[in-house]
Amino acid sequence: MTAEQNGSLPPEEQDTVMVYFNPEFIQSLADLSNQRQRNFRDLLDAARDGDLDAACQLGQHYCRGSDGAPKDEEAGFFWLSKAAEGDHIAAQYSLGMCWLRGVGTEKNPEKGAELLAGAAEQGYLPAVCELGLCYELGAGVEMDKMKAAELYREAAEQDFAPAQCNLGFFYYRGIGVEEDDRQAAMWFAKAAQQGYARAQMLMGECFENGYGVERDPEKALALYRASHEQGYEAATCALGVCYDRGIGVEEDHEKAAQLYIDSAKEGYPRGQYMVGQCYEYGHGLEKDEKKAAEYYRLAHESGFPPGTCALGLCYETAMGVEEDKEKAAALYRQAAEAGHAPSQCNLGFCYYQGIGVEEDNSEAVKWFLRAAEQEYPRALQLLGECYDFGYGVEKDAVRAAQLYAAANEKNHAPAATALGLCYELGRGVEKDLHKAVELYRKAAEAGDVRGQCNLGYCCYQGIGTEVDDAEAARWFAAAAERGYPRAQFLLGQCREFGYGVEKDMNAALDLYRSAWEKGHAPAAAALGLCYEQGKGVEQDKARAVEYYTLGAKAGDARAQCNLGFCYYQGIGTEMNDAEAAKWFERAVQQDYPRAQQLLGECYENGYGVERDLQRAFRLYQKSHENGHLPGTCSLGLCYEAGVGVEADPARAVELYRQAAERGYPRAQCNLGFCYYRGIGVEEDNDQAFAWFTRAAEDGFARAQQLLGECYENGYGTEVDLTRAFQLYQAAHKQGYSPATCALGVCYEFGDGVAEDKAKAAALYLQAARAGNVRAQCNYGYCCYRGIGVEENNSEAVKWFTRAAGAGSSRAQMLLGECYENGYGVEADPQKAFQLYQQAHEGGSSAGTCSLGLCYELGTGVEADKEKAAQLYRQAAEAGNARAQCNLAFFYYHGIAVEEDNAQAFYWFSQSAEKEYHRAEFFLGECYENGYGVTADPAKAVEYYTRAHRGGRSDGTFALASCYEKGVGVKADPAKALALYQEAAQRGHKEAGEAVKRLSGKKKRRFPWQRK
User: Fold this and answer.
1) DSSP single-letter state for residue 1006
2) What is the average per-residue pLDDT within 303-315?
3) For burial by CB atoms within 10 Å, which of 286, 293, 638, 853 has the most?
4) Which 3 state secondary structure label does DSSP give 850?
């Protein structure tokens, strides 16, 4: 509230300090005929003898209590009346002043003005000047500023110094005349040359500020000093300001304070106020808030609005007095109603924030507007806020920007910051990030903490300027040192991650704590994350939830989202989807993109809310629009799978690519999968491999597993089972169950690692328990076949049932086998048929084949060979070896199809290539007998051998027959016998007879020996 210049005195103060009555000059005129009277008694005697000059002079002495006369205003009024009755012009003037001021008589301004008018008509210059003041103030006459100016001019043109000064002041303030600093300075100069103290002071202001004359601080100082030496308190105070600010003289705060004290002792209110400032800030005097408040009170009691305002601030902030916000508001109101702009602004702010009064934005706007009309910069800025956010007025971003700009032109630093934000966001002005930075820098260099923080943030994020973490940290530090909580929080981030400063987690935590203690909600979220992750503190997830809760309740969107995520995942608290959704929703209401994506998940899956795919889609879309890469990826998945929107694989790919190219691993993986499966793009294993690699390098588990598949199968790269195993293992360590299952397959078959069936089974069980359907089926199969575990059909059924219920067509097919054959469950052909049908509908070629066998044999359904043939063909064309063999058998024997050995040979060949041993046996028969192919005994032996080695008893028997007869091999009865014996052991019915025949236990009977 310190006045920046001496010219900042308000008009009402100037009125209160005007001196229109120069006693010395008046006395010299009244004393022309009485120069020989030397004492009061002589003067009294002369007055009693009827000497009008003596009577006038005696009255003045009584009024003042001077020259030996006791102060007796009534006696003074009496003698002035006597002289005035005798038409003594000076007495008429003085008596008029008594009536105006109520000196020695009851106050009667009209009577006073009448007497002054009479003296003025006689050309008495003091009366002319004083009558002008009556018209200026409306004292005893109707107010008439132009009439006042005419009277001042009349006396001024006759070189009457007080009138010259008053006329100059009219030009200075544009009162009754057009404002004209040159005219003002001219009249001040004329009066100052006559040694008139007030004119000297005002002329000093002109030289100090360059009003109507060229600026000259030294001349200003000399004029203030001259006026001060005449005891003019306003000049004494102005001289103090010169010493305070180094205007025309070297700064000397102690000297300034003493001059302020001198003027204050004389009751000069501005001086009292300035002494208060010195005590408040320790400027030239030892800081003493209590004394500051005492001096502000003196200034207030003297009717000086800045003092009233300062005293109000003391009560508001408990500076030197006990806090009393209601008293503060009352003082602001008193000064505000007197037209004091800072008080109007402060009163508005009380209504704005509910300080000492009920919060009332409309009332706040009213007072901000009054102060703004006086171009008070803080009021312009605060009024701009009201228009910016619609507080108490209709929202108007353009008007807000205009008000910020007006305040900025007056170098109000907070307004520069506010205007910078307008340019940054394009709110009320055309977006211009460089202009925003320019304004933030102006505010920052002027010491505005918000501007410093905003400038730091621009450097931090590269908004309108190059990214410069060191510069960001410097500005954050500047604002943080002054306790600005957002800057403390952001500097904490710099300290946490080493952005622009040395990494220091302890310093980061201190900054976060300090910011949170000041109520900066994002700091609570930061502290929560430190406790959640154990960064700089011992990990304590429950404590993290406490901080997230504090920040969430304080309205911080990040804290709300993090708290929701803790409930979503059961981190530091019980899992609670409804509570998670509630906090996600609150963050969504603040347009927080991560929460939009997570709440989308809730609506997509019905977690804590009723399932709503359209709402999920809209939330993902909003998150994507806000630049949140997981939201973009989730939106892509909606388009891929048709979740809440019509499926559009090409749009899905487009979205995945957007997020993938910006480095989001999940999107990279999804984009790779689109190339892997040809979803929305041409299938391209090279592209799939490239995107899986990028995501896997970031440790994304699904990508590691899929990249492992590429290495396992040579998709987009060379086969490398060891690398595949390593990738599966890396994803498995992250708890990714599909990789755990894939790792089990590696151990089961020895792919990239030493075979270990027990390890495989253990991994399948781990993934199965985690809900992985493939692993549930695989572990069931281990139990079914006794692979790495004891054979246990009941356990197999349990896991097949789980996987089948989750839609695994392989599990449905295998569970069907269990129901068909009564493995681990009571046999139920109808149930088996239903399961095979589910597997077939789920795209399992094995299920289709088993369903075909049901129709062939009438298992759980009425037999239908043609239907069986159709199903075999469908599965055979899908590459199922068993179905290919069964279809070939139908052609071989003409079952529901025309017998066709060529077709039979073709399908047996297809199946045999897959090492299906039954097909190998029949293919051997084809080669032995020339069915559908040129006979080739050697080939027949080859396929019989393969079938034999595959455990087929019919293959073993056929191979034995070849060795017995020498078909395709050299006859070898011993070899044949051994093979017959092996076939018999495998349950081949005819093999026993052959064994007896070759071992001589059964003699051949000749035809004539038979009965």
Assistant:
1) P
2) 97
3) 638
4) helix
pLDDT at site 32: 36
Contact 869, 896 (CB under 8 A): yes
CA angle 496, 497, 499 (to 5 degrees): 115
Dump pLDDT digits (tens) for 924-977: 999 999 999 999 999 999 999 999 999 999 999 999 999 999 999 999 999 999
DSSP secondary structure letter of residue 71: P
The closest of 375, 430, 438, 452 to 407, measured between CA atoms, is 375
Residues 6+ apart with CB under 8 A from 193: none
pLDDT in tens, 612-626: 999 999 999 999 999
Number of H helices, E strands in the chain: 56, 0
Instruction: Please tell me whether residue 33 adopts helix, strand or coil conformation.
Output: coil
Pick from 542, 476, 544, 572: nearest CA to 515: 476
Distance (Å, whole) CA 979 – CA 956:
6
End-to-end CA gap in the chain = 141
The better pLDDT of the pair 927, 67 is held by 927
Burial letters for 704-735: b for 16+ Cβ neighbours within 10 Å, e otherwise?
A: bbbbbbbbbeebbbeebbebbbbbbbbbbeee
| H, E, C per residue of 723-769 | HHHHHHHHHHHCCCHHHHHHHHHHHHHCCCCCCCHHHHHHHHHHHHH
Distance, CA of 303 to CA of 305 (rounded, Å):
6
Output the CA–CA distances (angstroms, integers) from residue 103 to 48, 60, 100, 250, 603, in the order listed: 22, 11, 8, 45, 87
Give CA 489 to chain center in angstroms: 12
Token pair listed for 621: 């879309």
pLDDT for the residue 601: 97
The answer to whether the beta carbons of residues 816 and 847 sit under 8 Å apart is yes
Tally of CB atoms within 10 A around 462: 12
Estimate to the nearest angstrom the gap between the alpha carbon of 901 and the chain centroid.
Answer: 76
List the single range of 55-64, 323-332, 715-724 with lowest mean pLDDT. 55-64
The Cα 364–Cα 368 span in angstroms is 6
- Which residue shows structure tokens 């040579």? 714
CA distance 784 to 823: 9
pLDDT single digits (tens) 815-862: 999 999 999 999 999 999 999 999 999 999 999 999 999 999 999 999
Query: Helix 701-713 crosses helix 737-749 at what angle (to 10 degrees)?
Result: 30
627 by Cβ neighbours in 10 Å (0-12 / 13-18 / 19+) ranks as: exposed
Closest CA to 243 of 234, 235, 252, 231: 252
| pLDDT grade for 5, boundaries at 50, 70 and 90 | very low
Burial 651-668, CB ≥16 within 10 A → b, else e: bbbbbbbbbbeeebbbbb
Phi, psi of 974 (to 5 degrees): -65, -45
466 burial type by CB count under 10 A (0-12 exposed, 13-18 middle, 19+ buried): exposed
683 in helix, strand or coil? coil
The stretch 488-498 carries a mean pLDDT of: 97
Q: Given this model, what pLDDT does residue 26 score? A: 42
Burial bucket for residue 826 (CB in 10 Å: 0-12, 13-18, 19+):
exposed
Confidence of residue 1001 (pLDDT cuts 50, 70, 90): low
- 566's CB contacts (< 8 A; 6+ apart) are 532, 541, 544, 545, 548, 572, 573, 580
Amino acid at 411: N
387: nearest Cα among 350, 355, 427:
427
Residues in the chain, overall count: 1011
DSSP 1003: P
Rounded to the nearest 10 degrees, what angle do helices 557-569 and 577-588 cross at? 160
Cβ contacts of residue 652 below 8 Å, gap of 6+? 636, 637, 638, 639, 640, 674, 679, 680
Show the CA angle centred on residue 287, arms to residues 281 and 291, nearest 5°. 100
Measure CA 254 to chain center.
48
